[in-house]
């Protein structure tokens, strides 16, 4: 079965961009701008590698990321297709250990309190780092760059644990970090609602920069509840 897609050439990579990430960014732009339409079948990995001028392992890794984000789906025996907006549901890789709801519940307490402590203890250098991170999120949103937005989102949450000033809290975070990061990315399959994520981080930033612990904690917990809601979970 021959792919009926537009030609996907035009991938541009810089020396600092890993090839799989460059492929993900290129394909997600095509999805967002309509070059790849919902329900369309992607070319085979071999065809994609030839069109983009990259290796098949890089294509395979990029497609795994897109599938995890819910932007593409696999139909057994038919291939890989661009997911329809109402069917974009990312994979949850930790189903043998817990549910996404379990993680969101834990985040309410863990990250809410980390934000409270950060607001009480943050210094000017830390405030500036958080501002730069939210600026990067705005820039990624304007560019419809989901990958960069997800990276900045993760950095923002990492910083809050760092700025909490509590080594025990930070140590509790490290073993479950990947699970928490995955939960942050689950709602990002709803591309039309990414602006909500950015606004919620601005509210958290306002509480921390203003050194208002109550506001910071409430904003963080509101963000987590909203993120869960975007994935269909009510806390």
Automatic annotation (TrEMBL):
It comes from the Bacteria. SUPFAM superfamilies: GntR ligand-binding domain-like, Winged helix' DNA-binding domain. It holds the Pfam family GntR. Keywords: DNA-binding, Transcription, Transcription regulation. Gene3D superfamilies: GntR ligand-binding domain-like, Winged helix-like DNA-binding domain superfamily/Winged helix DNA-binding domain. InterPro entries: GntR_C, TF_FadR/GntR_C, Tscrpt_reg_HTH_GntR, WH-like_DNA-bd_sf, WH_DNA-bd_sf. Residues 17-85 form the HTH gntR-type domain. This is FadR family transcriptional regulator. One of its GO terms (molecular function) is DNA binding.
